[in-house]
Amino acid sequence: MVLPIFAHKIRPKFQHVILMHRSVKASTMPSPAPIQTIPTKPFTDQKPGTSGLRKRVKVFQQENYLANFVASLFQVLRAEGNSESKTILVGGDGRYYGKEAIYDITRLAAGHQDTIDTVIIAKDGILSTPAASNIVRERKLKGAILLTASHNPGGADGDFGVKWNGANGGPAKAAMTEKIFQESLKIQSYNISAESDVKDLDISALGESTLSSGLNVQVIDGVTDYVKLMHRLFDFAGIKKFIQNSPDFKVVFDSMSGVTGPYAQRIFVGELQLPADSVFRAVPLPDFGGAHPDPNLIYAKETVDRVFGGSAAFGACWDGDGDRNMILGADHTFVTPSDSVAIIAANHQHIPYFKNGLKGVARSMPTSRALDRVAHKLGVEVFEVPTGWKFFGNLMDSGRCSLCGEESFGTGGDFVREKDGIFAVLAWLQIMASTGKSVRQILSQHYDEFGRNVFQRFDFEEVDSEAGAKVMDKLRGFVESQELIGKTLGPAGEVSEMDDFCYTDPIDGSVNPKQGVRIIFKDSSRIIIRLSGTGTQGATIRVYLEKYLDPRPDLVSADPTDTLRPLAMAALEQGGITEFTGRQAPTVTT
Question: What's the pLDDT band for 441 if we cut at 50, 70, 90?
């Protein structure tokens, strides 16, 4: 009888059959695991979003659901046939259902050995998204399958995700994900090895084995290569000396029970010798401890309370898969992600990796234009791209972008092709070590020089999808008619421009329309409204507000809510958000 996929159970310990025993006699070798062809039917909802395919766990647990999507990916890789490597990397953020998925993906790879002959698995399946990007690039792999839903909740009733990163280490481009989706719509069967093929595979033990199907499997430490990378980017000795010479400098780092725990402990406790309790919630948990692993002022309240309560001079936290970060300082100092990337750019000379200067910088369209002001002073190119880290890839691959960021708590550079939360924290530590200034002093000094782009984001989460579409239809109607141009929207001011952002990639010429409606005012203030592509239930409407304030004393103390209230009122009214969704206030404000 053919065992259905997902029928096997994960065993806590395994006896290896042929782990690293190349001299085993033929008579002791297990019988080859048969490759089975399993009939299936397409699912119509496997179109990847901004960052992979994300659904509720229960959706992925449907018979053949995961198999269909992964087999469709393998079919596209086979058709492309443009990679010398036949090795893929598999790992994830440790969320519920991840280990089961790793075993089934390994079996699916065994059924496609004309395309994949080796699977590298991170020990225990624990692999941060930026660390995966680094491994793919360093080892010149075909790519990586990342099992993550990033900052979305975990657990049996939470979210799961599958994401493909290509040979450059970055997220698959839109053309690639569209090919996978089209393949998923016509799949009728897939090849997979028998369940017995992985019954003795232990992903908790480092080593190399050949499965009875002939597939090579390597289990590696997912942390070591990443730590080596950080040593190439930063002056660890300088940071360590700063910490040792500053006895009152206390830090609080929150891994939010996500994947960064082992990385943070190795780097901050092991390498930089911070106290062990500097990193908390450092053990990856399948349900993230019942919390929402999203590093913002709402979901990271415990971290905020510790830092703002005076327990630390510097605080940070990371999301489920380690690519997002939030930076906090004493005296109730919150650094917006938009300001964070601008400040790192303005202080790049303190970071050894950037010692030869920046080639260029880039930001997502909704991110404030604070980075633009720094770029203009530095005399480097600045690019505005749609939301989604994949859009930075071509710029970095072509050597035109060294540093980039998104307002959604993402910061990164061209050393990998993903945003990187721990990189951002180390960058801030390096700047503090070099300047001797606190987070608040660095922020204040930046505002004194460049002025302040006051920024705020409203998230209206899990609204009815039809209601979300009506909001965007209304706004796009205004774009088409241009009727708001020249009108004064109360205290928000006069509208000078309105469009639906369309991005033409300067490297490959690809066109990406309908990336968010922008209302731009005569004083350069902006309202941006778009639907998010990272949720799994309903729609999330994101509203972005930005107003520039010229340099003046105490800009660091300006209240974003008061400053942006006129823009907020105009956004809610013009978008018809309350009218269509019934929501009087956002779910989250950052």
Answer: very high
Contact 342, 428 (CB under 8 A): no
The CA-atom distances, in angstroms, between 94 and each of 42, 200, 320 are: 28, 21, 8
Secondary structure (DSSP) of 337-367: HHHHHHHHHHTGGGSGGGTT--SEEEEETTS
State the amino acid at position 53 in one-letter form.
L
> What would the mean pLDDT of 292-302 be, rounded to a whole number?
93
- The candidate with the shortest Cα–Cα distance to 369, out of 547, 198, 504, 528, is 547
Alpha helices in 30-116 (DSSP H): 57-60, 65-80, 98-110
185-231 pLDDT per residue, tens: 999 999 999 999 999 999 999 999 999 999 999 999 999 999 999 99
Bridge partner list, 146: 91, 163
The question of whether 532 is a catalytic residue gets the answer: no
Q: The tokens of 553 are what?
A: 């004393």
Task: At 583, list the tokens.
Answer: 């929501």
State the catalytic residue, choosing from 51, 150, 257, 402: 150
Residues 6+ apart with CB under 8 A from 107: 5, 192, 193, 194, 195, 197, 198
Amino acid at 90: V
Burial (CB count <10 Å: 0-12, 13-18, 19+), residue 237: exposed
Q: What pLDDT shows up at residue 553? A: 83
Query: pLDDT digits over 310-354, tens only?
Result: 999 999 999 999 999 999 999 999 999 999 999 999 999 999 999
Q: How big is the CA angle at 74 (ends 73 and 77), to the nearest 5 degrees? A: 90
Q: Answer yes or no: are the C-beta atoms of 227 and 267 closer than 8 Å.
A: yes
Nearest Cα residue to 52 out of 163, 179, 175, 174:
163
- For residue 433, the one-letter residue type is A
CA pair distance 49, 574, nearest whole angstrom: 27
What pTM was estimated for this model as a whole?
0.92
Structure tokens at 251: 């830090």
